[in-house]
Amino acid sequence: MTVAEYNKSVDDFSDGIYRFILKNFKNEEKAKDVVQDTYEKLWVKVKEIPAEKAKAYLFTTAYHTMIDMIRKEKRVTAFEEGKHDRPAASTQYSGLSQLLDEAVSKLPEDQRSVILLRDYEGYSYDEISSITGLTESQVKVYIFRGRLFLKNYIGSIEAVI
Fold first, then answer.
1. Average pLDDT of the chain, as a whole number
2. 65, 79, 92, 159: most buried, per Cβ within 10 A?
3. Left if phi > 0, otherwise alpha if psi is -120 to 50, otherwise beta: which for 155?
4. How far is the C-alpha of 104 from the C-alpha of 6, rounded, in Å?
5. CA distance 123 to 2
């Protein structure tokens, strides 16, 4: 990869990486740190990574950097799947985006990451598999379980709107 190709990858992919990390962290400074660390790691391996593989390398590295940071800070919380007595939505409209962000934040880390990569960033199952290191079957299962949890957590769309 040349310096020009590296700079092009910064222009092309940094916003997408930032959005993906920000959705997980909910902290702009930490998200910026992850993006910066990711590009630093790419710079160290700039001679080894071909330009056409930069996107996959960047998202994979960002994902692993984020996981390392979460583990380092011991922010992993226990999650009780399906233990909600009632949907989180009330009969009053409180903001669909806010409700969805809250619901996504309650997902386990693996499910949240694959949901964000698939539904927010538009990656294919194969691309998500290479980014996260999970098998394609695991990705599909995590997406299914995550969507099922979101459906149960949010409740009916009529209750939200």
1. 79
2. 65
3. left
4. 32
5. 26
Q: Which residues contact 87 (CB under 8 A, 6 or more apart)?
A: 152, 153, 154, 155, 156, 159
The structural domains of the chain, with segments of one domain joined by +, span 3-73, 96-160
Q: For residue 150, give the H/E element and its range.
A: helix 136-154
**Residue reference for tokens 């080894």:** 48
Cβ proximity of 62 and 12 under 8 Å: no
CA-CA distance, 114 to 51, in Å (whole number)? Answer: 24
Structure token pair of residue 150: 């979101």
For residue 102, give Cα distances in angstroms to 70, 82, 112.
Answer: 18, 15, 11
Cβ neighbors of 130 (< 8 A, separation 6 or more) are: 56, 60
Structure tokens at 124: 């294919």
3-73 CATH choice from 3.10.450, 3.40.50, 1.10.1740, 1.10.10: 1.10.1740
The H-assigned helical ranges of the chain are 3-25, 28-44, 54-73, 96-105, 109-115, 125-132, 136-154, 157-160
pLDDT value at residue 109 = 82
CATH number of the 96-160 domain: 1.10.10.10
For tokens 């222009």, the residue is 11
